[in-house]
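Researcher: Structure for this, please.
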Amino acid sequence: MQSVKKVLVVELNDDPEYQRLLDGQPQTCGMRAGKVYLKPGQACGQHSTAEHEETLIFLSGQGELLIGKEERFVVGQGKISYIPPNTVHDVKNTGTKPLVYIYCVAPTAKDEGRCLAAGGQNPQDPKNPPILAEFQGKLGGIEKFGKIKNFLKKCLQNSSQHI
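Model: Predicted structure, token format:
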């Protein structure tokens, strides 16, 4: 079955500010994405994506992912982070250069059993902390798309299958 949505390609700009990439419905099946630019010492602000899960893909800089009031994870260039639904979090630039990352927020599976049957973890499990992973090599320039293309493709496929 072919999707009624159209393929989108969005150019990342080099502007030192927020850039909206995907707006959610009706542009997508529900996924939203944007590029965040944080100056040294700046934070995005504590928030939750409610029933949505979120992935952060760090393109440059270094910082800290704060979960609730006590958990802290080191993040920065070459790392990604998965944040389960209903998780209060914040990202803060702890470095001396800008922290730049892409966020992807997507609805979760309405039928959690399908997600778990496909090998996923229960995102509601409080013992399931955010997953951090290192990319192989450095992300830089247009090459970053080659290194994360498969990851983003899986995100898009999973979110559209489970809506």
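Researcher: Any notable elements?
Model: Residues 111-149, 158-163 have pLDDT under 50 and may be disordered. The beta strands are 19-23, 32-38, 52-60, 62-67, 71-76, 79-83, 89-93, 99-107, 131-134.
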